[in-house]
Design goal:
The protein is α/β, with parallel strands linked by helices. Among the domains are: 282 residues, Glycosidases (TIM Barrel, Alpha-Beta Barrel); 75 residues, no CATH class. The protein has twelve helices and 28 strands. It has an eight-stranded parallel barrel, surrounded by five helices. Strands 13-12-18-17-16 form a five-stranded antiparallel beta sheet. A three-stranded antiparallel beta sheet has the order 21-28-27, with no helix packed on it. A hairpin with a 4-residue loop joins strand 17 and strand 18. Helix 4 packs across helix 5 and helix 9 runs parallel beside helix 10. It is globular, with a radius of gyration of 23 Å. The two termini are 25 Å apart.
Length: 579
């Protein structure tokens, strides 16, 4: 398909679709107690909630916390900035006893009593539970019960909610959770229904990072927006949202997880010889300290402060920066030492927030607060969501103009059409990934959108189709007071690839006046992550995703409709209008 940007500019000048865009998002920051000195100078007022990590549950249900951090002092500082303070229990290292603590009331009741007393004595606004993971192996030595952890967990948080209500009043204290990219496991598979948790838990923070790393034989993105089929781990920011909402957790009670760090590995080849390919052979195992406290981890602030990145999107030699259009993430390679780093920057975070907004997500979570550099990443969250921020460099989403995943074109500031297929970007980097999906209309280091709009008003661009889940497109808004951009240009339709094979277990419902058939909700299916429109092209917003062996019904954003053509699906403007 081909289209003119000039025609889109007029269409998209009318504002954003109704829904979550006007809501104030949650911005949750994890405060690592062992890095407390590095958190000095962080503006607590830019967070709605701060989770102090970690409280350690003992075998008997008692709770300990890092004695080097004065809870009364730090909670007082947080409250003084108008922000809620919680303590997060568990984490990767200290989730050992959760399974036994929730197993039955003889263990869970004392644990609940200790939590209530801990919240009260430290003037906390609630508790965050970071169990890694119910029904699934996490750190070595963790106790797990594959069949019963998840149902026991639900009973536990239900009783904890009752205890909070009895002690503090209805809704006075928060219960939140950190969760992985798929719902809690039962007998080796993700739960198909977690709606019961959402009735007693205020919100869940999805850990949409650590998806690829040094434990694999191939380099890959730490926190991909989309995954690339048949390359690295088939999980992503997008699939995580679909998995949790598909299992009955309301989008408005989910916060997307953002990594303020990157993961480094040693490649076995010179990755510059195959430019744009971030999936190449690597040495299995973590690296020693890479500018940060943790093995194999580069904190954003170290990438910037140590000059690896001289600006958010410019690398210093011998480092080379690349951008991957499918995963919507940057990556670095140093050919001298063959080190690969996958990380998030303002551009990739803006793309993630754009997608989260389109899905009605309640907010964002950050691991961790101390990893930022002069507020660059935190300010991007605020500006991308449409709010205000102060200090540091602001990379507004309205200026970045990143599409939701798998948008179908990109424009360069000189209005020349790309040689490969279609999708390319106009960042200031000399090297960009091989085009695959998402468009970018950035220009220079300032991401000034108006330059692109003026340059591309009469130029047509082709589309490129990629194998990623469907996404919604929506009319953008002009942000008041935004000096970086006045207009946002986005494609009205995004497309995805669907496997060509026919799912023999897909029952269908057929309109008596049409030959079109669609799946039935809760009917069995076999092709996981397959997407199908619920009606004929442009006739309705519903679509179905095959999750956990059943068809789950979802919907495109307000005002848009689902389209299906052969093996492709998209969410775009309806074919008919009342106007």
């Amino acid at each position: 398909m081909r289209f003119s940007i000039a025609s889109l500019t007029a269409v998209f000048a009318f504002g954003i679709a109704p829904g979550v865009f006007g809501a104030e998002p949650n911005v949750v920051g994890y405060y690592a107690s062992w890095n407390q000195q590095e958190t000095v100078g962080v503006d607590f007022s830019k967070y709605t909630h701060i989770n102090l990590a970690f409280g350690i549950p003992a075998k008997d249900g008692s709770i300990s916390f890092d004695p080097t951090l004065s809870l009364p002092n730090i909670v007082g500082q947080i409250h003084g900035n108008g922000t809620k303070a919680l303590v997060s229990l568990g984490g990767w290292t200290d989730s050992c006893y959760f399974s036994t603590l929730v197993k039955d009331t003889s263990a869970s009741n004392p644990f609940i009593t200790n939590i209530v007393n801990f919240v009260e004595s430290n003037s906390l606004d609630g508790i965050d539970i970071d169990w890694e993971y119910p029904g699934r192996a996490g750190n070595d030595g963790n106790i797990i019960d594959e069949a019963n952890d998840t149902p026991n967990y639900l009973k536990f948080v239900t009783n904890l909610r009752s205890a909070f209500t009895a002690k503090f009043g209805n809704g006075a204290k928060l219960i939140t959770m950190a969760v992985r990219v798929q719902p809690f496991d039962v007998n080796g598979s993700p739960s198909s229904d977690v709606s019961g948790f959402a009735k007693v838990v205020d919100f869940a923070n999805i850990m949409q990072y650590d998806i690829n790393g040094a434990w694999l034989e191939t380099t890959g993105p730490n926190a991909p927006l989309n995954f690339e089929v048949d390359k690295a781990t088939p999980l992503s920011f997008v699939t995580a949202i679909d998995a949790w909402t598909g299992a009955g957790w309301p989008a408005s009670q989910l916060n997307v997880g953002l990594a303020f760090y990157g993961r480094a590995t040693n490649a076995l080849v010179d990755m510059t010889l195959e430019q744009g390919n971030q999936y190449q052979a690597q040495q299995v195992g973590v690296l020693p300290n890479c500018g940060g406290e943790t093995d194999g981890v580069w904190q954003w602030k170290n990438l910037r402060a140590q000059g690896v990145l001289t600006s958010p999107d410019t690398a210093a030699a011998p480092w080379v920066r690349y951008w991957d259009d499918v995963t919507q993430t940057p990556w670095l390679f140093n050919p001298t030492i063959k080190q690969f780093v996958s990380y998030d920057d303002p551009k990739s975070i803006g793309a993630k927030i754009n997608f989260a907004k389109s899905k009605g997500i309640g907010g964002a979570m950050v691991w961790s607060m101390d990893n930022d550099y002069k507020g660059e990443l935190l300010d991007t969250i605020h500006s991308s969501w449409g709010g205000s921020s102060s200090g540091g460099n602001v990379y507004s989403t309205a200026a970045v103009i990143e599409s939701t995943p798998a948008a179908v074109y990109s424009a360069t500031s000189d209005a020349t059409e790309s040689t490969p297929a279609a999708a390319y970007s106009t960042t200031s980097d000399a090297i960009e990934s091989t085009p695959a999906a998402a468009y970018s209309t950035t220009s220079d280091a300032g991401y000034i959108a108006t330059t692109i709009v003026e340059a591309a008003t009469t130029t047509e661009y082709s589309s490129t189709i990629v194998s990623v889940p469907p996404v919604v497109s929506y009319p953008p808004s002009t942000t008041a007071g935004d000096t970086n951009a006045s207009t946002v240009v986005e494609d009205a339709t995004t497309e995805v690839s669907i496997p060509e094979s026919t799912d023999v277990n897909t029952p269908s419902s057929t309109d008596e006046n049409s030959d079109y058939s669609s799946p039935s909700e809760d009917a069995p299916c076999t092709e996981e992550l397959k997407y199908v429109c619920g009606s004929e092209d442009g006739a309705g917003s519903a679509y179905y995703i095959c999750l956990f062996g059943s068809w789950i019904k979802l919907s495109c954003a307000s005002g848009t409709a689902c389209f299906q053509q052969n093996n492709f699906i998209s969410c775009g403007w309806p074919t008919t209008s009342s106007a």
